[in-house]
């Protein structure tokens, strides 16, 4: 490589860090709303300015070189300094415009946060919010890695570095097709439920984790008795599976309100086993929150409080 001039910019640093964190040029380009060729060009120019190889491309796998490892840690610090500088200016000028990236697990991400975001943006039209929807574990990792400033998840056992605040209340219910013999019933026993073919959410789902705890599926003798017919990657897929007759399931009551009103699905409770839960707002306690992040967090708390009022 040529003699280094160290003339790199923040766009190159951001592209490099996203490639490292996401493990792919295409995923980094998608996350930054850029063409893959643009990301490749920025990293090539970055390596040229440093006169060092930062990434080894081993087939489809990307690995940091030793120089890349050292540079990545410094690049993260520089991007954090840029973020803090921008925050200082926001504090000075007041909350007028900016960008916020948040994450929501499936239920809050699809059924709760869109309305909150809409109302927040109506009051703050200069704010752009990007919502990333994934399972609870992925959202938790995104907040810890700094890709997401805030997250809303459906399980309580979050990483100790995350600050948690309870928002909306929720309840898990047994879901059956209206053609199922249980349709119209109010309750079933856990024993009856264990005898049915069962649809479950993917590993990492907050709904799955809460369901396992309430049904005692963490106990080997009970776990061995459940008849799992399929594992689905989203609540929508579970609902479609129940409608198609693949089995019964347990889902958030919030996720099935529309289907129940339309008479497509029926919801039941498990006798003697109430299944309440809370959706929680999470943030990394080590990071200084931006003004927009603080404002949206407080707004979400107020919206959740109003929703709980009689």
Secondary structure class reads alpha/beta
CATH architecture of the largest domain: 3-Layer(aba) Sandwich
Give unreliable regions as ranges.
Answer: none
Structural domain count: 3
Q: Helix amount, in percent?
A: 40-55%
Beta-strand percent range: 15-25%
What series of H and E elements makes up the topology? Answer: HHHEEHEHEHEEEHEHHEHEHEEH
Number of helices: 12
Radius of gyration: 23 Å
First and last CA, distance: 68 Å
CATH class of the largest domain: Alpha Beta
Shape: elongated
- What is the CATH superfamily classification of the largest domain? Periplasmic binding protein-like II
What is the number of beta strands? 12
Q: In this structure, how is the largest beta sheet organized?
A: 10 strands, mixed
